[in-house]
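[step 3/7] fold_predict: job queued, chain A
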Amino acid sequence: MTTQDEPVLDLAHLGHLELLTPKPDESLRFFVDVLGMTESGRQGDSVYLRGWDDYERHSLKLTASKKPGMGHMAFRARSQPALERRVAALKGSGYDIGWTDGDLGHGPAFLCRDPDGHQIELYYETEWYVAPPELKPALKNQAQRFPARGVNVRRLDHLNCLASDIRANRIFYEDYLGCRLTEQIIQNDGNEAGMWMTLTNKSYDFAFTRDHTGAKGRFHHLTYALDSREDVLRAADIFLEAGVPIESGPHKHAVQQTFFLYVYEPGGNRVEVCNAGARLILAPDWKPIVWTEEERKKGQAWGMKTVESFHTYGTPPVEDVD
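[step 4/7] structure written:
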C-alpha cells in the first residue's frame, strides 16, 4: 500500500486512551484530586475519567494491572461509513485484530496493532456526556462545570508512544489511518527518530519517538490541555504541594512549541499538562517540518537541555516487556 495523494479524512480525533497502573487507588486519587478530573463510570477493574470540557463520557480509562503502560489508544471515526472504510483497509493487512462489542461509553470498535505492537481502537458510536445537576455548567456550550479542584485539566490533548522503528509506524498511520505528518526528526544517518501526526487542525494528536532501548510497544506519556501558560505554572506549584515528582518543565518545546510540564503519576506513568498555544495546521498542503540531529541537540526552545530520563524512561519498564 502506498501513501495516497488525496488525504484520507476518515478519523476525526484522538478519543481516549487506556492507562494501566499497578497502584489503581493511588493513581485514581492523582487523576481526580490533583489533575481535577471527574469520574464518569466504573466497570470491572477500570475507572473512567474525563476532563471538564471533554465532550465524550470519558477520555481516560484507568485500569488496574501488574505493570504500568498503555492498554490501547482510541480514535473516533467521522461517521459509520468512514469507520467501515478504515476497517476494510486494515483487514488482511496483518495489523488487524477484529471487532469488539465496544466499551462503557462507546459502541462497537475495531481493534488493530501498529508495527510496533501498540493496540489501537477505532469506533464511531459514542455517548456524549450529560452533566448531572450538580455539575451542570452555566454556559450551555460547555460540557461540564469547571471543577475548581487541583490542576483542572480541560481536555485530552495528545499522547506519545515509544517505538523501535519510527518510519514503519509513520507509514502505517499515514496509509491505514489517514494521519498527517506535521513535524519529524531525521538523524544524520537518515533514520527517522520522531514523528508528530494529526487528524485535525491541531498541530498534533499524537507523537512517536524512537525507543533508545530497542524495545517495542512502550508508552511515553499522555497529555491534558490547560487554558494558558499561567495555568501550567500554577500546576507546577500544585504538584509541588501534592508531592508529585516533577520530571521537566515548565518550559517550551522547540518541536511544536508546546508549553509543557511533565510529572509521574503514582503508577509510574509519565503525565504532561500543557498549553499548546495558538498553533493550528490550516494549510491543506502543509509540508512537514524536519528537524536535524544537530538542531535537536540544542535542547528545547529557550535552551534547556532535554533531561536524560525523557529519552530513557517509558512504561512498562524494559525488563517487563513481553
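[step 5/7] annotate
The helical segments are 24-34, 80-90, 166-175, 229-242, 293-297, 308-312.
The chain has a mean pLDDT of 95.
exit 0
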